[in-house]
């Protein structure tokens, strides 16, 4: 799950970078364009923005779905573990709390 999430985020960042570069290139060329070329460029830019928006929306939806699935799996596993071994969960929780308190106390006094 983590690897897929990282890949999707990296792809989204690359798409955004390409879009930004294309936009910068287009804006720098605007001064040299005729009215007809400017109109064509505007239409191409609009189409690129719509495509990017659609692609980004799809990827964000996929990321959201992936995160929710992972959260559901982790939540189910933790509930099953707590149901099967409640005293172990209490002992581990107590141990983590005691360790955290000791580290915080050391940090505050050290």
Q: What can be said about the biggest beta sheet?
A: none
Whole-number average pLDDT?
80
Order of helices and strands: HHH
Sum up the overall morphology in one term.
elongated
Radius of gyration from CA coordinates = 26 Å
Q: In what range is the share of β-strand residues?
A: under 5%
Helix proportion range: over 70%
Report, as a whole number of angstroms, the end-to-end distance. Answer: 40 Å
Number of helices: 3
How many beta-strand segments? 0
Structural class: mainly alpha
Indicate the low-confidence ranges by residue numbers: none
What does this structure look like?
The chain has 110 residues and is mainly α. It is 93% helix and 0% strand. It has three helices and no strands. Helix 2 packs across helix 3 (86-109). The longest helix is centred in the middle third of the chain and has 50 residues, at 35-84. The two termini are 40 Å apart. 0% of the residues are buried. The model has no long low-confidence stretch (mean pLDDT 80).
């Amino acid at each position: 799950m983590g690897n897929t999430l990282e890949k999707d985020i990296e792809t989204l960042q690359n798409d955004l970078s390409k879009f930004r570069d294309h936009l910068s290139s287009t804006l720098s060329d605007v001064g040299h364009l005729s009215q007809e070329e400017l109109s064509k460029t505007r239409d191409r830019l609009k189409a690129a923005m719509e495509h990017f928006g659609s692609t980004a929306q799809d990827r964000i939806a996929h990321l959201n779905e992936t995160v929710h699935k992972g959260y559901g799996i982790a939540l189910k596993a933790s509930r099953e573990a707590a149901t099967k071994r409640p005293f172990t969960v209490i002992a581990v929780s107590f141990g983590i709390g005691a360790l955290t308190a000791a580290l915080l106390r050391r940090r505050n006094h050290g």
